[in-house]
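Support request, please re-run this one:
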Amino acid sequence: MSWVAWVAVVAGALALVAVGLGLWVWRQQKRLRTQLGVAPAAESSATTPTTPGQLVAFVANPSKPDVADLRAAVRKAASEQYLPEPLWLETTVEDPGVGQAREAVAAGADLVVAVGGDGTVRAVAEALVGTGVPMGLMPLGTGNLLARNLDVPLNDPLAAMQLALDGVDKPIDVGWLRVQAWESQMDDDIAEAADDLPDDTDVPRDHIFLVIAGLGFDAAMVADTDDDLKAKVGWIAYFMAGVRHLHGRRLRIRLTLDENPARQLRARSVLIGNCGKLPGGITLLPDAVLDDGVLDIASIDTRAGVAGWAQLFGEVVLQGVGVRNELPAKMGRIDHERARTVRIDVTGGEHVQVDGDIVGRASRITARVDPGALVVRVAG
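Re-run finished. Output below.
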């Protein structure tokens, strides 16, 4: 067996040990919280839940399973809690929720609940930014990224709805990403799906993101994920797509944070995060906080093939439980930084994603934070 293979085996074993350690620490923390009767506290700017007489609107993605049954359950719940007949607005292929959420606000809705996956949540959030109208979540998607970070029930839509009705309002930051320069060889289907250039203007528009945007390996993984497989096995389909890109090229990147001088680096991905929890119990950005007014930037790089990825995975698991590996010359590493504005230039053009949605291929992107711009309904 070659030395590279031995290194890969050892790195894989260390990654498994790291996973075990992470699970053990998590269980000990959970047991301690139970013994002490302590629950995680949610900071909020208001503590008034939805009260009788308030109008609740639901913006629902009809392509998700059981949406028709949920509509009947929503009406029943509203009646039992002496709320007016709720608004039920369904998304379309042409409008994934922005127009429907704006219609709800115009109709006087006191709460708008996004019923669907991450795309529906992003669309509803885009319409609600700056309005002060709170957004609730009924997650029905594969990733459910914002719901995970807000501790919204993932497998019980009615429990999530009740949280939206009874919870408290919490202002959070949102991120905006703009594609400044397109890759000239971008696929036509991706360009059409990205819709970054509106028909009536040549000015690129901003894409909202609530959790993580990225360029490089992570976006290529999302772009390559099979939709049919995702419907069958959920978020694991992303992992299976990622395996196909483990041997992709390292990117040459020029990174500019705030007003600091630009610098060159090599990386597999650059992630721009508003919060850091991902499916599978992974915390990719442990320092990211939804209401701190800054973005968290992670530059991810690996060398030495599978061994580097194995070490990187172990490092991700360990940092999720508060353990940081600061040793230099690692085969796989994550470098963390913080900023309010970000500019990324990449040689050759790469896929770009926002909260798991591909917005095209680009050679330059910029991102900024909009502090406290969106109000969400969380547990009290």
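The chain has two domains: 56-171, 174-373. Residues 1-48, 184-202 have pLDDT under 50 and may be disordered.
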